[in-house]
Write a structure and sequence with these properties.
With 211 residues, this protein is of the alpha/beta class. It has 7 helices and 13 strands.
Length: 211
């Protein structure tokens, strides 16, 4: 983290290297992905002071780091781990449907990776492959005025080939500490067990108040 360790927004989760396969392209395209990329760059363009807590492997291209820094994303919370791989996904688009497959996974983010001096108006917890633990969320709660959650990395399931599905997830330790819940419809369904969006949103609100 920077010397001040004070930010408008800190996003916590792994950067990804995505390989995109589509019937519209002749060859697969490799690009920088992951929630920290999209959230932090957009917020920085809106004038926010942003940072990221994440881990990557030695295969993470230097040009990705340079591009993020050129877009005013603080990377002092990014750790490059020797003898490890960056989280990688293959995204295949066929007939308006997307199949997601995990091929490699970076080491998890640990409580020790969150600086005790960190202060942020908002911390956005956005795991993409289960890399954030309950303990990390509790540490982040102490660093933020508001804690936001994108639960995609908690509700994802992976078969032996890495194909991604959705599993039921409800974690009182995490849900009881958040102020903002941001998700796709199928993710809020996985958390509440309800298919209809309005009742699911109501149940989520009640769950948060009870925890």
């Amino acid at each position: 983290m920077s010397k001040a360790n004070v930010f408008d927004l800190v996003t916590v989760g792994h950067f990804a290297i995505d390989t995109i396969i589509s019937s519209k392209t002749m060859t697969p395209k490799t690009t920088l992905g992951g929630s920290p990329t999209y959230v932090s760059v957009v917020a920085a363009k809106l004038g926010a002071k942003v940072s990221v807590i994440s881990k990557v492997g030695n295969d993470f291209p230097k040009e990705y780091s340079t591009w993020l820094q050129n877009n005013n994303v603080d990377l002092s919370g990014l750790k490059r781990v020797s003898n490890a791989c960056t989280t990688r996904y293959v995204l295949e688009y066929r007939n308006l449907e997307r199949q997601l497959r995990l091929t490699t996974k970076a080491p998890p983010i640990l409580p020790a990776d969150v600086p005790r001096s960190l202060r942020s108006a908002v911390v956005h917890v956005a795991p993409i492959a289960g890399e954030v633990s309950d303990e990390v969320v509790s540490r982040l709660r102490k660093s933020a005025r508001a804690l936001s959650l994108d639960p995609q990395g908690f509700v994802r399931s992976f078969d032996k080939k890495g194909n991604v599905g959705v599993k039921r997830w409800r974690n009182p330790e995490v849900l009881g500490q958040i102020d903002v819940f941001k998700s796709a419809i199928r993710e809020i369904q996985a958390v509440t067990g309800l298919r209809n969006l309005k009742p699911a949103m109501k149940k989520l609100s009640i769950m948060d108040q009870e925890l």
